[in-house]
Amino acid sequence: MYRSLFAFILISLFTVNNSAAGQSGAASTGETRTERIRSGTIGTGNTSVGGVSTGSTSVRDTGTGQIRIVDRPVSFSERREAGMLRYIEEHYGLKQSNLEFTPRMIVLHWTEIETFEGTFQTFNQETTSRTDISGAGDVNVSIQFVVDRDGTIYRLQPENWMARHVIGLNHVSIGIENVGTGTRSSDTLTDAQIEANVLLIRDLITRYPTIEYVIGHHEYQRFENDPLWGELDQGYRTIKIDPGDRFMAAVRAQIRDLEMKGPPK
Ligand SMILES: [Zn+2]
Question: What is the pLDDT of residues 18-67, one digit of tens each?
């Protein structure tokens, strides 16, 4: 876990040094790790040029192909972090001083927003006004990864920080959104997205050997009686159909050798 966080910090410093002149003070000693991350890539300003984050890219070999991850960190102020910490205490009974967690699962999704930029802007908001979920806390939904329709992989927050993307399992899961085509009901995800999800899953499992499950968001409620289920509010559920059985079957067919578990029967 710490090694990947360290990698993220290195990426952060690389971004700072290359895209924001005068901000290299972020590397000075005496700051906490979290402060250094926030001043490096999390939060607006340091990685932005004209309001558009420039991002940085890391490339690694997964053994079955080369993966390229573009960092596009969303705004994550101390207020948002505090909101998330409050959320995980209220909903999971976990009192933590930071958002780090041990991933046990990867959850795949699709967006109802048709573009990566639109998706990014949605996750970049720090609070939510969505009436179906705001009663459970106004900290905005969040996600570690978004895969664009051409297969480009974006990382929106440190991958070992909890995000708000799946009721009951946020405390154990890394989420991957796939940019959809604005429909609530049909799967229009691309072959490039299937390939990118497969690569990303392989990459994550290499770096987090604690991951045992790969599931679709539409399968999440099958964990309700599983020891992994963490949601304390019995009335807080939403019906999900993303990303659907076709997409999950296509991804699972290509990661069969990893012997990942699905949802309980
Ligand atoms: Zn979803």
Answer: 333 333 333 333 333 333 344 333 333 333 333 344 568 888 887 777 89
* Ligand 1 ion: Cβ-proximal residues, 5 Å cutoff: 109, 217, 242
CA of 149 to the centre of ligand 1 (A): 16
- Give the Cβ contact number of residue 254 at 10 Å: 16
Question: Is residue 236 included in any domain, yes or no?
Answer: yes
Spacing, Cα 166 to ligand 1 middle (Å): 7
Query: What CATH number is attached to the domain comprising 116?
Result: 3.40.80.10
Distance CA(33)–CA(6), nearest Å, equals: 9
Burial 44-75 (b: 16+ CB within 10 A, else e): eebbeeeeebbbbeeeeebeeeebebbbbbbb
The angle at the Cα of 157, spanning 151 to 158, to the nearest 5 degrees, equals 105
Q: From the CA of 108, how far away is ligand 1's center (Å)?
A: 7
Asked whether residue 219 is domain-assigned, the answer is yes
Q: Both tokens of residue 155?
A: 């990382």
State the distance from the centre of ligand 1 to the C-alpha of 130, rounded, in angstroms. Answer: 14
- Asked whether residue 59 is domain-assigned, the answer is yes
pTM: 0.80
Range of the domain at 186: 53-258
